[in-house]
Amino acid sequence: MKKIIVLMFLSLFFLFLFPIQGNAAANTSKIFLNGEQLSLPNDVQVTIVNKNVMIPIRVVAENLKFDVDWNQQARQVKIQQNEKVISLTVDQKQAMVADKQVTLNTAPQILNKTLVVPIRFVSEQMGLSVKWNNQEKIVYLTGSNNEPTEASGDDSGSDTTSLTHVTDIVFADNQLVVSMDGEQVQPVISTLKNPDRLVVDLPGTVFGDLAQPLDQGLNGKLDVTGYPNVSEVRYSLFKRDPGQVRIVVELNNVKDVQFDQNVIADKLLIDLNVSGDSVMPVPVTPVIDTGRKVVVIDPGHGGSDPGTISITNKPEKEYVLALGLKVQALLLNEPDIDLVMTRDSDIYPTRSERVQLANELNADVFVSIHGNSVTSSPQASGTETYYYQRSSSKDLANIIHERLVKALGFKDRGVKNGSLQVIRETTMPAVLLEIGFLSNAAEEKAMSSEEVQTKAAQAIVDGIKEYLGI
Fold first, then answer.
1. pTM for the full model?
2. Strand partners, 44
């Protein structure tokens, strides 16, 4: 009986995934339940809403015989299995599991006259795991051998609700960035020979709604074209009970595997300093010693590196450049400051080149501007500022951060010590500003406005001037 219940609810989730589309073509999506492909109705298709996979409620009742109570006037649906009751309301992110209120990433919606709900929420409340391969349009469903968990939860390793979800894996500019949704994870990192490789194990993790593709065995690879010292970056669900995601970075032509790791908020960052890599010298126009202070402003990313993508699908590089140019316009009016920009157009200086520029100029201050993002948690919000170890950098961070929070009114996420290359390898007081969250709809809208950008620019300039005593 337990197996029947699990199979029925797993089927519920794949069916939930596929809202009916008017004049839809024959369904080409595939659903795998514990490694076995399920047959789907021809008119059932996948729907993605705000990067969340959604499924239609009508299939729950018609095909799986779950108790579904739809209150059209209240626009509320209840799904019941034995003692388990989930209550969802159209266009509301607040849901009820038994008598406990929880918040969804994406609210249930009416699409083409069909009610669709988020598969991940429903599945995890029942102790099930859902994996979505966006490239091949495949849903992988994995069920526990146990009965679905009760509303109070189950802390056992087989309960995926107690695990952290890996939601994004990116390799760019010799930096591995892993985004996670859940409890902070302490990575276990080791280096192996023949071939040289860096192995990153993330205990207590499973894959969430990963942007990168997964095959049927929950394995995948990243495109590392353009990185001659990296032959492959691959990832897999290395252990299932308890979960453990493993990421392997395989290297070419290195004497030693060197790296620096840092866990910041919901992200793990690993900088690779591969032996044999060389940085081409960057032409630097000498700044004549006029007694003025040299300030380097660094709008992050640019060119081939878009940075994070906002909730409205705009690249971070555009936002930070717009803000950086406003800071530039203000600083050019300061007679006691010589300003240097790492970029003033859509180009991509590497992080090493940005560091080299500031160090060769013997700058007095270095400020890197960024926008934050946690795609798996669109409610995340606020301003945070990073420095690296030096007390002078911490002082600069505290001053600018205080002014930014006061000017913008965003949540104060604090000043933090972070091992990020542009603030770690620069030799002057250096900070990295995460102005706000581009993954948060309200903050992204504000941060894209001329008014808020002007306030942020003025706060940055005022903070720099206060630190320099100008």
1. 0.50
2. none
